Amino acid sequence: MPEQNRQIVMVVDDNKANLAIASSMLKTQYKVYALPSAKGLFDLLETVRPDLILLDNGATQEYEQSAEKNRCPLCGIAMDANGMCPKCGYKQ
Asked: pLDDT 10s digit of each residue in the chain, 92 long?
């Protein structure tokens, strides 16, 4: 699929390895923006409207407190030390 026709996914995580893995997994189907911070996300949201935002736990809290929170679908991508998502309770 031509890149200009792909849906946009923004991935926000301060862990560079997680960003690389997510980008690698998604880039064949989506236009991916890999961002190391919520600040970078907020800056990019001024000019780009994503179809989905994937956020780590720290960025999720910042995003939910921002005026951007109703702009597009959001999915938290965090696990605590026990392998459990602190938002929904999913366990690996």
From this structure: 566 789 999 998 888 888 888 899 899 999 999 999 888 888 898 899 888 888 876 665 666 665 555 566 656 666 566 666 655 555 54
Decide if 37 contacts 12 (C-beta within 8 A). Answer: yes
Please state whether the predicted TM-score (pTM) of the whole model is above 0.85.
no
Nearest residue to 72 via CA among 47, 90, 45: 45
Bridge partners of residue 12, in order along the sequence: 35, 55
Candidates 36, 84, 86; CA nearest to 61 is: 86
The token pair that represents 27 in the structure block? 């880039």
Q: Is the dihedral of CA 46, 62, 57, 15 positive or negative?
A: positive
Let me know if residue 92 belongs to a domain: no
What domain range is 25 assigned to? 3-76
